[in-house]
Design goal:
Blueprint: E1 2-6, H1 14-22, E2 27-34, E3 41-49, H2 52-62, E4 66-67, E5 70-71, E6 73-76
Antiparallel strand pairs: 1-3, 1-6, 2-3, 4-5
Length: 111
Amino acid sequence: MNIYIGNLSQEVTEEELRQAFEAFGQVTSVNIIKDRYSGGSRGFGFVEMAMKSEAQAAIGALNGTLLRERTLNVSEARPRSEGGRGGGSYGRGGGYGGGGGYGGGGKRRRY
């Protein structure tokens, strides 16, 4: 079962998360999501546990607890929606005027 962990401190390591969740059962993977450009933590991650019952016990016990002075938000991870990140149109649309953005046609202003 895949578990979402939010409100992570920048200093939390994958090993620390593994240790916290291993108290409840077998952990198959740990992944703290990193910023693509800076490489720093984005403040959330995922833990995969082999047994659903163990994962539910971990969620119940760890949600709302402190780790490195941050209150964890722990819940069952929701599956990704189809299509990836979505396709908002704000600010998109090729250079001068393409259909996206706030105004549609004409030059886009830079502030």
